[in-house]
C-alpha cells in the first residue's frame, strides 16, 4: 500500500493500513520491519534547490547500512573518489550531509520489504538517481574506512587549513595562535579518530576492536560533557564578541560548536558502519550477538515478556507530557523512549519512558533461547519498546523512538568566596545532576516533529543533535559492558599479559607490627632495597601490587615509620591505598593526605574518601585554593637508628590499582636527601601556607615549571647556535601551552632536533618550512594507554659535550597543567634509570606498528612515507636502543613486555632455589621456576610464559583447561593482586571498564 502523506513532515510517522494493524504491530515494527520508507527530500542549498532533481533517503531494517544521505548525487559521486592528496573529502557532500525535508512536497511510501522498486511508481530516472546516491554514499564510507587505517582524520577537518604554504610567511606568534592551524576541540576529535582507527584495524582481535569502539564512544561523551559544555557556557556569557576583536583566524564559541557538530556527525557514521558491517559480524562468528527483538521467536518473546513483567515493569516511571505533567528528569548519559500515542478519541498524546539504569543495559537472553549464557544479548530499551502496551492501556501505540542525552559537566565555581571547599564540592556534585543538556542522540528513524519536540524540551539546537543509524545501538560507550562469557577462542582478545614483579622487589616481605625484632631482621624489606639505589617501576609491565601498593602497606605496618604524607587525585572505588593509610593511622602513625576534590567526574568518590580518612583520624586537606593538585607524590619518614630517613615515591600516574593495569606510567622510589628535602617542602606548600619557588630536584607548577621548561629549551637553542649537539625528546599526553610551543618553534628554527611523543591534542604543526621543519610529532595508540610524561634535553651547552638531563613527572605541557595545577616533574639522576627512560623514548620513535606521524597538513599518518621517518631514527646517548628492533616490527608495547620478561629471567639465574632455601625455607616456595630460553616471537606472547606468575590466583580446576580465559574484569584488575606465591598484600574490588576511557585529563 502506498500512502501520500500530508504537507508537513509531522505527518511522516508510522502509517499503517488500518487502526487494527496499528494496535497489533509493535512500535519498532511499524517503522522498520518488513517496510522500506522512502522520503522525497531536497537539499539545503537555496540557490540550487530548483536546479537539482529530488533525492531519496532510505530507512530499512533489512539493510545493515542505513542509506540515509540526502546530498546531490553529482556531488556524492565526485566525493566517492579521493582528492589530490589521496584523502576522501567529506566536505564535497555539499556542506551538510543531510538535506532538508521539503514540507511542501514530502512523499512517504510504505511497502513490504519484498516489493520491487518498479512497483513504487518511480520513474527510471528517479530510480537511477536513487541507486547512484546510495551507492555513492556507501562508496564514500568504504573509502573513508580505508583511509582511516592510514590517515586520521579520514576527512579534512572542518575549518582547518591543510595547505601550510599559506602560513610560511607568518611570524611564530600568529602561527601558534591560529585556530586554522590548531584548535583544541578539533585536535581532541582527531585523537578520537585515532582511537577509532584501532577499532577499524582487522589485525586487532574482534572483542578488542569492540572495546576501542566503546572507548571512542566514552571519549565523545566526556568531550561533550566537558569541552562542549564549556563552549556553550562561553557562548552564553558573550565570549564570542571578545573573540571577534582578536582576528579572523580565531573562532568564536558558536563557530567552534558548528565545526564540532559536523565532525562528530562524520565520526558517528564511521562508528556505526564499523559496528554494523565489521565488528558485529566478527563477533557473530564466535556466536556473540547483540540481537534485535525481531530476531526472537514467539516462545522466546513470551519468556522475555514474563521477565519484563517481573523485574522491569515495577521500576518504570512512564511520564505523560502535557500541561499537567512536565518533561521528566533525565540523568546525563541516560536513554529514554519518546512514545507517540493515540487515545480512544483519536487525540494525539506524547509520553517519555526512561530506561532504568538500575537494570543491566544488555540482557542476556541466552537462557530464554536455550543457548549458552554470555553469548546472546538484547538491549533493554527494545524490551521496553516491545512491551509498551503494558504502560499505556487504552491507548494505541503509534511509534516509539529511543534517544540519549548528555548534560554539561563544566560547572562554574568560585573558590575565593567558598567558606568550606568540601561543602562547595558536595553542592556542585548535586548541581551537576541538573545541569543543562549539551547533546541529544537519536536514531535516524525518528521523525522530525518528534526530534523538534525533544529539542524544544531540552533547549537544544539542531547542531546539538547526533543521528545514529537505527541498526546500531545508542551509546557506543557501553558496548563493551556486555557480560560476555570469556571461555572463548583466544583470537577474540589480546594475548594475556600479567604484570611482573620488579626484579629488585621479588621476595620482599611486608613488615608486621606484631613480629619480633628477630623475625623482622630476617625479612627482606622494601626500604632496605630502596637504600641500595633508586628503583623505577614501569606499569603495567611491572606489578602495582608488589611495588607501589607494597610500599604503602609496608609503611602502614612498619613500626619504625613515623609519618606518611601523600596526594590522591584518582583511585579505585575500593582502594587498597586508602585502606593502608587508615591502617597506618590505626597503628599510631602521623598520616596526612591531600585529597583533590576537584578531580573531574571523581568528585563524589573523593568526597567519600576524604570523609573516610577524616573519620579514621588522618589529617586531610582538600587541595590548594584556585588550582587542582594533580601531582603524584608520597613521603614516608622512617626512624633508622638515630636519624630520620625520608623515602619518596614520585609518579606519573594515579595511585589507582585498576588503571595501573592498562595505563603506562612510571613510579620512582628514592631515599636520597635532596629528593626528601624537596618532598618535605612540597607537602608544606600543599598542606599549609609555605611557598617555595625553587627546589633541589623538582620542577613544581604553578610556581616555576613553565619558566623552567622554557629555559631548558632556550639552553638547547643556545647550544645549537654555538654548533653543539642539541636535541629535545618529550613524551606527554597533551601539548597546547602557547609559550612552550613558541619555544619549540624557535628551537626548530635554530636547528635543534625536536621529537615530540604526544598521545592527544597537540598545538604544534611540524614540517612547515621556516618554522617547524626540525620538529617531529608522533602519537602512539595501542592496547595500553600511553600516560607517562618524561622529557630529555641534550644539555651540551656547558661543556660542548652531551650530558643529557632527563625528567619525569605528572605534568603535560598544557596551559592548565602549567598554570592552574600543582604538578611535579623530577630530575632523574640514577644512570640506570636514565638509560631505561631513554630506551623507552627511542622505542617510541622507531615504533612501526602503533605510532601515528603528524604531518604538515595537520593530520596523522601511518603511510609508508611516515614509516620511513621512524625507520631513519637513530638511537641517542646514553640509551643503547636495545628495545628498538622489536619496537620497529612489533610495536612499543611488545618490546617492553619482552624486555621485562628478559630482565626477570636474568634475575632468576643469579641465585639458585636451593641457595635461597638454605637461608630461609619459606622463600623457596615463592620462587618461580627458571624461565626457559624463548625466541622473540614467543616472548611477545607473555601469557604463554611463566604461568605460575599470573597476577591473579588461578584455581586448579581452571588451570587444567588450556582454553580457559580469565574475565575482562580480572585482566583489568590483575595489578590489584600480587604474583601467585608471593604474599597477598591486599585485595581490591573489580572496577568496570566503563570507568576507563582514554581520558585527556587522567
Automatic annotation (TrEMBL):
Residues 302-474 form the Polyphosphate kinase middle domain. It is an enzyme of class 2 (transferase). GO terms for cellular component: polyphosphate kinase complex. Keywords: ATP-binding, Kinase, Nucleotide-binding, Phosphoprotein, Transferase. One of its GO terms (molecular function) is polyphosphate kinase activity. It holds the Pfam family PP_kinase_C. Residues 525-689, 698-866 form the Polyphosphate kinase C-terminal domain. Residues 182-290 form the Polyphosphate kinase N-terminal domain. Residues 935-1002 are annotated as: Disordered. This is ATP-polyphosphate phosphotransferase.
Amino acid at each position: 500500500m502506498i500512502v501520500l502523506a500530508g504537507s508537513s513532515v509531522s505527518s511522516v510517522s508510522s502509517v499503517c493500513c488500518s487502526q487494527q494493524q496499528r494496535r497489533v504491530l509493535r512500535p519498532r515494527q511499524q517503522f522498520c520491519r518488513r517496510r522500506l520508507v522512502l522520503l522525497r527530500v531536497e537539499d539545503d542549498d537555496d540557490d540550487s534547490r530548483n536546479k537539482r532533481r529530488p533525492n531519496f533517503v532510505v530507512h530499512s531494517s533489512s539493510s545493515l547500512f542505513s542509506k540515509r544521505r540526502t546530498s546531490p548525487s553529482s556531488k556524492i559521486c565526485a566525493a566517492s573518489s579521493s582528492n589530490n592528496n589521496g584523502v576522501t573529502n567529506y566536505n564535497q557532500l555539499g556542506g551538510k550531509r543531510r538535506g532538508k525535508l521539503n514540507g511542501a512536497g514530502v512523499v512517504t511510501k510504505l511497502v513490504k520489504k519484498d516489493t520491487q522498486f518498479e512497483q513504487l511508481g518511480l520513474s527510471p530516472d528517479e530510480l537511477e538517481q536513487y541507486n547512484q546516491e546510495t551507492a555513492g554514499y556507501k562508496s564514500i564510507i568504504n573509502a573513508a574506512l580505508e583511509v582511516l587505517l592510514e590517515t586520521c582524520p579520514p576527512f579534512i577537518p572542518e575549518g582547518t587549513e591543510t595547505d601550510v604554504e599559506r602560513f610560511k610567511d607568518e611570524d611564530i606568534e600568529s602561527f601558534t595562535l591560529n585556530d586554522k592551524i590548531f584548535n583544541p576541540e578539533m585536535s581532541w576529535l582527531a585523537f578520537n579518530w585515532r582511537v577509532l582507527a584501532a577499532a577499524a584495524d582487522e589485525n586487532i582481535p574482534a572483542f578488542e576492536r569492540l572495546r576501542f569502539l566503546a572507548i571512542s564512544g566514552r571519549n565523545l561523551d566526556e568531550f561533550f560533557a566537558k569541552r562542549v559544555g564549556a563552549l556553550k557556557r562561553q557562548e552564553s556569557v558573550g565570549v564570542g564578541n571578545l573573540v571577534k576583536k582578536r582576528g579572523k583566524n580565531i573562532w568564536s564559541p558558536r563557530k567552534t560548536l558548528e565545526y564540532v557538530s559536523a565532525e562528530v556527525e562524520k565520526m558517528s557514521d564511521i562508528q556505526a558502519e564499523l559496528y554494523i558491517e565489521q565488528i558485529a559480524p566478527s563477533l557473530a562468528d564466535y556466536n556473540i550477538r547483540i540481537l534485535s527483538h525481531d530476531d526472537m521467536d514467539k516462545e522466546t518473546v513470551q519468556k522475555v515478556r514474563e521477565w519484563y513483567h517481573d523485574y522491569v515493569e515495577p521500576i518504570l516511571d512512564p511520564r505523560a507530557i502535557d500541561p499537567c505533567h512536565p518533561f521528566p528528569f533525565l540523568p546525563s548519559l541516560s536513554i529514554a523512549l519518546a512514545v507517540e500515542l493515540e487515545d480512544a478519541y483519536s487525540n494525539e498524546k506524547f509520553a517519555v519512558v526512561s530506561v532504568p539504569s538500575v537494570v543491566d543495559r544488555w540482557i542476556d537472553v541466552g537462557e530464554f533461547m536455550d543457548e549458552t549464557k554470555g553469548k546472546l544479548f538484547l538491549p533493554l530499551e527494545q524490551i521496553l519498546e516491545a512491551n509498551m502496551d503494558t504502560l499505556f492501556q487504552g491507548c494505541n501505540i503509534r511509534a516509539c523512538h529511543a534517544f540519549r542525552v548528555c548534560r554539561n559537566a563544566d560547572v562554574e565555581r568560585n573558590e575565593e568566596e567558598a567558606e568550606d571547599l568540601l561543602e562547595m564540592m558536595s553542592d556542585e556534585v548535586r548541581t551537576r545532576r541538573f545541569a543543562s543538556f549539551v547533546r541529544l542522540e537519536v536514531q535516524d528513524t525518528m521523525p522530525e516533529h518528534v526530534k523538534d519536540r525533544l529539542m524544544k524540551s531540552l533547549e537544544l539546537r539542531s547542531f546539538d543533535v547526533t543521528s545514529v543509524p537505527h541498526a546500531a545501538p545508542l551509546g557506543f560507550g557501553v558496548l563493551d559492558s556486555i557480560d560476555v562469557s570469556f571461555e572463548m577462542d583466544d583470537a577474540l582478545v589480546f594475548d594475556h599479559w600479567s604484570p611482573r614483579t620488579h626484579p629488585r622487589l621479588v621476595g620482599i616481605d611486608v613488615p608486621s607490627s606484631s613480629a619480633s625484632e628477630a623475625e623482622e631482621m630476617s625479612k627482606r624489606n622494601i626500604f632496605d632495597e630502596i637504600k641500595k639505589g633508586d628503583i623505577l617501576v614501569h606499569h603495567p609491565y611491572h606489578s602495582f601490587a608488589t611495588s607501589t601498593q607494597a610500599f604503602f602497606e609496608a609503611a602502614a605496618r612498619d613500626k619504625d615509620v613515623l609519618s606518611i604524607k601523600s596526594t590522591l587525585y584518582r583511585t579505585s572505588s575500593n582502594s587498597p591505598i586508602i585502606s593502608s593509610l587508615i591502617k597506618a593511622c590505626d597503628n599510631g602513625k602521623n598520616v596526612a593526605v591531600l585529597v583533590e576534590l576537584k578531580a573531574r567526574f571523581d568528585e563524589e568518590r573523593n568526597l567519600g574518601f576524604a570523609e573516610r580518612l577524616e573519620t579514621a583520624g588522618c589529617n586531610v586537606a582538600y587541595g590548594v585554593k584556585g588550582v587542582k593538585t594533580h601531582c603524584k607524590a608520597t613521603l614516608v619518614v622512617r626512624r633508622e637508628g638515630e636519624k630520620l630517613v625520608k623515602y619518596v615515591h614520585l609518579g606519573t600516574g594515579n595511585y589507582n590499582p585498576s588503571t595501573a593495569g592498562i595505563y603506562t606510567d612510571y613510579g620512582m622510589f628514592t631515599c636520597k636527601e635532596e629528593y626528601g628535602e624537596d618532598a618535605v617542602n612540597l607537602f608544606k606548600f600543599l598542606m599549609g601556607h609555605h611557598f617555595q619557588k625553587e627546589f633541589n630536584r623538582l620542577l613544581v607548577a604553578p610556581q616555576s615549571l613553565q619558566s623552567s621548561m622554557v629555559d631548558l629549551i632556550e639552553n638547547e637553542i643556545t647550544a645549537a647556535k654555538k654548533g653543539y649537539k642539541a636535541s629535545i625528546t618529550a613524551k606527554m599526553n597533551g601539548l597546547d601551552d602557547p609559550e612552550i610551543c613558541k619555544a619549540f618553534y624557535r628551537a626548530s628554527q635554530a636547528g635543534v632536533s625536536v621529537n615530540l611523543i604526544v598521545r592527544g591534542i597537540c598545538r604544534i604543526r611540524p614540517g612547515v618550512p621556516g618554522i617547524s621543519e626540525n620538529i617531529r610529532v608522533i602519537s602512539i595508540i595501542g592496547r595500553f594507554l600511553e600516560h607517562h610524561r618524561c622529557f630529555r634535553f641534550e644539555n651540551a651547552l656547558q661543556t660542548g659535550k652531551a650530558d643529557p638531563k632527563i625528567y619525569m613527572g605528572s605534568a603535560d605541557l598544557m596551559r592548565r597543567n602549567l598554570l592552574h595545577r600543582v604538578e611535579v616533574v623530577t630530575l632523574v639522576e640514577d644512570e640506570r634509570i636514565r638509560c631505561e627512560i631513554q630506551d623507552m623514548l627511542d622505542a617510541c620513535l622507531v615504533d612501526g606498528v602503533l605510532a601515528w606521524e603528524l604531518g604538515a597538513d595537520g593530520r596523522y599518518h601511518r603511510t609508508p612515507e611516515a614509516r620511513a621517518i621512524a625507520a631513519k631514527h637513530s638511537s641517542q646517548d646514553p640509551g643503547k636502543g636495545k628495545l628498538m628492533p622489536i619496537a620497529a616490527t612489533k610495536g612499543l608495547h611488545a618490546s617492553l613486555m619482552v624486555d621485562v620478561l628478559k630482565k626477570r629471567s636474568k634475575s632468576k639465574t643469579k641465585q639458585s632455589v636451593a641457595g635461597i632455601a638454605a637461608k630461609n625455607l619459606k622463600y623457596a616456595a615463592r620462587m618461580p621456576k627458571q624461565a626457559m630460553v624463548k625466541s622473540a616471537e614467543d616472548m611477545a606472547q607473555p601469557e604463554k610464559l611463566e604461568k605460575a606468575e599470573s597476577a591473579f590466583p588461578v584455581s586448579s580446576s581452571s588451570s587444567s583447561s588450556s582454553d580457559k580465559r580469565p574475565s575482562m574484569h580480572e585482566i583489568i584488575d590483575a595489578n590489584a593482586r600480587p604474583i601467585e606465591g608471593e604474599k597477598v598484600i591486599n585485595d581490591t574490588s573489580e572496577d568496570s571498564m566503563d570507568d576507563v576511557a582514554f581520558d585527556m585529563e587522567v
